[in-house]
Structure formats: C-alpha cells, structure tokens
Design brief:
The chain is an alpha/beta fold. The protein is built from eight helices and ten strands. The structure holds adenosine-5'-diphosphate and magnesium ion (MG).
C-alpha cells in the first residue's frame, strides 16, 4: 500500500520582489510505501529539510501535490492541516524540542493532553511507550537531567504517542555521540520492523542512513538517485559512501 504520493513538488523562495528565486525543491515526484524506512540524503542546501517539511505539512508548497494516507494535504486549510498533523504525523527534530519545565513523562504525554484525552489513558499510553523504549527509569526527570541520547528517545516517544501514520525525522542523530546515534537508529529500525511504522529520515550521515531500507539522493532540489538496501548495514554503508562521492559535494 502507498502511504505518500508526491507529484511535481516545488518550493521556491524569494527574499524580496525582484530578488533571485531559489528553487529549494525543483519538481520532485515520488511514492513512499506503507512500512517503508526511507532516507533523504544530499549535500547541505540540496533541499532535504524543505522537502521533509513540506511532506510533514510544516512548510507550504509552491506547487505540486502531496497525498498522505489518501488526503491531499496541499488542499487542506491551515486549521485542517494542523489537525491532520497532530493526528497522523510525528516529527523528531535534531535539537529534541523538549519543554524544559515538564518532566520526561509529561513531555511524552503532551500531545494526548493537548488532544484532551483522559488522564488515565495518557498515563497508560505513556507508560507502555516508556517501557518499550527503555526510558521508564527517567520518567520523572527533567530534560536538563538526562543525556542527549535519552532526550532523543523521549522526543521519539512524544512523536509516537499519537500512533502516527508516518514519522518524520530531520537529522535526529545530528547532536548525538556515535553510541547514542547507533542506539537511536536501532530504535527506529525496531519501530519499522516490529510495528511497521513508516519512517522518513533526513540525514547527511552515511552511518545513520545505512539503517534505512531505501535512500533517495537530492541535488539542487531534484532527485538524483535512489538506492535500496539488501539488509546488510555494512554493505549498504559502503554503497552510500560510493554514491555520495559520485554525486559530489555530499558533505554537510
Ligand atoms: N526560509 C527560507 N528562505 C529562503 N531560502 C531558504 C529558506 N529555507 C531554505 N532556503 C534555501 O533553500 C535551499 C535548500 O535548503 P534546505 O532545504 O535547508 O537544504 P538542506 O536541508 O538539504 O541543507 C538552500 O539554498 C537554502 O538556502
Ligand atoms: Mg537540512
């Protein structure tokens, strides 16, 4: 089954009338299947974040269509988009975006509280998820008291609690040491394998990307190439490095 269909998507930026137009995304069409774990790679400035943010409904499109779970999100009003995003989409940021004044547990349950769900349901779902992600021990800690790796697991739990159809992540390992990055990628891989979550990950890091099942490479706002993993991390990692050097300017 197809989860996301993108047709002739563009995003143009213009700083002021008369200024040069930057084609951040320049005519992209693609489909993402349900249960896919797809990586978006490319040099700094190639349009990865712009593409991801349009897919996640955070950034309005200039032209083109994005259908997610049978809804054309480019046709939704601002309010309907916000509802759709809250109900169907999860987003993990590079810098965690946790609220410092709330505990770990409260951060995770926040989307359900905003959705006015019963406190008992919030408590139960938060517990289940913390157990699954191995962060129950730090439930009552403040974000300032936990490590970067733990923060990103908490952020992932918050993104997952609404049981979204798609999880988007923009450089989620960008602020993590290599051990924590490895743990986070294993966790995303497990969510994809065990719960069939559809995951769309932006990264410039070949190691993180090697956990994906498929990678699309962007260059100057366009799709340059797609590669598919054979399931072997080491071999896929080597293949990613090859493609990066072939495409050129791939370092962020
Ligand atoms: N809000 C914005 N206003 C103007 N230009 C932007 C804006 N956001 C991104 N761009 C430009 O769009 C291009 C793609 O940016 P981005 O999607 O952030 O790339 P990446 O995530 O691959 O590094 C870059 O040239 C960037 O400068
Ligand atoms: Mg980016």
């Amino acid at each position: 089954m197809t989860m996301i269909t993108v047709q002739k998507l563009t995003k143009h930026y213009q700083a002021f009338p008369g200024a040069a137009i930057v084609k951040a995304v320049d005519g992209i069409s693609l489909t993402i299947e349900t249960g896919e774990f797809i990586g978006i790679m490319g040099a700094s400035g190639s349009g990865k974040t712009t593409l991801l943010n349009m897919l996640a409904g955070i950034e309005p499109v200039t032209s083109g269509e994005i259908t997610i779970a049978n809804t054309d999100i480019t046709k939704l009003s601002k309010d309907k988009m916000a509802l759709f995003r809250r109900g169907k989409l999860g987003y993990i940021f590079q810098d965690f975006n946790l609220l410092d004044s709330l505990s770990v547990k409260e951060n995770i349950g926040l989307p359900l509280i905003l959705d006015r769900q019963h406190p008992k349901i919030v408590e139960q779902k938060t517990r289940e998820l913390m157990n699954y992600l191995n962060i129950a021990r730090i439930a009552d800690n403040a974000p300032a008291q936990i490590s970067g790796g733990q923060k990103q697991r908490v952020a992932a739990a918050r993104a997952l609690i609404t049981e979204p159809a798609v999880i988007f992540a923009d450089e989620p390992t960008g602020n993590l040491d290599s051990k924590s990055a490895n743990d986070l990628m294993l966790m995303l891989e497990r969510l994809n394998n065990e719960l069939a979550n559809t995951i769309v990950l932006v990264t410039h890091d070949a190691f993180s990307a090697s956990f994906c099942k498929k990678i699309i490479f962007m260059k100057d706002g366009r799709l340059e190439m797609t590669i598919v993993s054979n399931g072997n991390h080491t071999q896929f990692f080597d293949r990613i490095l090859e493609v990066q050097s072939a495409i050129g300017g791939a370092k962020d």
